[in-house]
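Example record

The entry below shows one chain as it appears in the dataset: sequence first, then structure tokens.
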Amino acid sequence: MHVNNLVWLRDDLRLEDNPALYYAALQGEIRVVMMASPKQWQEHNESPAKTGLRIALFNRVAEQLAQKGIRAEVIEAPTYEDIPNKLANYCQTHHVHAVWFNEELPINEQRRDEAVVTTLQRLNIDCHKQACDLIVPREVLNQQGLPFKVFTPFFKRWLSMLGEQNPIPFSAPPEQSEATLYQAYQPNWLGSYRDDLWPADQPSISQRLWQFCHLKEEAYSAHRDIPNEPGTSLLSPYLALGALGPRECLFALQYVCEQQGREWRDSVWLKELAWRDFYRQLMKHFPKLSKGKAFKANTEELTWQSDESLLLAWQQGRTGFPIVDAAMRQLNQTGWMHNRLRMISASFFCKLMFADWRKGEAYFMQKLIDGEFAANNGGWQWSASTGCDAAPYFRVFNPTRQSQTYDKSGDFIRRFVPELTELDDKAIHQPSSAQRLACAYPEPIIDYKSARQYAIDVFANL
């Protein structure tokens, strides 16, 4: 059986709220492929955990499609450069006349898609690029038609545009024929991940979204900064890989707020979703962000310090600052880190160690199961004061004060730095030398006051 329309899934691994899948299915019967590019993913510093979850999600999507009689399979293409010819050969073999996919915004993905379109059009195969995976997929521009460089005015315009579009998620494709069998794709390079923390089946993912909106979203503002409380959505890996669509999140939020008599536009969680859109749109408007360049050009003149022993201590969670060490150990053990801790750890790295933010950005991507290029880059540049941020360069997080504020009783520290378990709630944030010796816990690798002043002086002299 020949099927004219092929849907190319990338980081949009879902049936619901998938524009390419929806519009292709309107044309008739479809096939679905995913390109497995392990060498490219490794070059992009994507973690083994994220790669493992990606393949698990595709296998679940393929099983769902098989139940609808829709064939889904994997094409192995080690790098993006291999994709155009591999996809072209597949289309010719299966007499595909049109390929459908959703836009991706980083520069390597843009170039990959341009090469694919050029190759396929030479073979008279149509390419249909659908909207990028954002809540507001249209460009959010100011009155001069230029991209916003600061989040707050972006958010105001984003909200107004959000009210102008249809919020209903796209439906899944209908049944195509009798159910077929799908044999799971299990390559020998497949990375492992904590499937007890991050289930890959769609019912569990949807349940997590709706339970968050029903039970936690209203209190999100009050609890989201407390790392020892389950106050965040834990949806970030699914958003990074597209197992959840942005309109699905918006629809759930709007529905629950309406049921509870609340104004959904006031949701702090909605603002976090808007940050995701903001950073992704910046990637498109400013390609240098995809090339390891700072948003603020003058900060390229900074001379970052390079001390491999300090870098290793930070990576291993042995800095002598308990909250930083707990955060880094959480990352290393689970492939995830609480958002407040990401800011604390990144600020410590960039401002107190005065290490190049690119090294920290790369390490996070190599470990995070939810590593999303635009958001990770934006967060690191925010912490380093090199990015799109209205706050002054002299914002430097005091890790001890952050610990005392957001982990008051030290329970999170005790969870990931067990050698400090017996310390009282005050000492655990800043142990004495005697306590460190007794607990076999290291002395601080930097002096906070002098490190903070050094960073401020260097930025002031730019």
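Notes for this example: The longest strand covers residues 30-36. Strands lie at 5-9, 30-36, 72-76, 98-102, 126-130.
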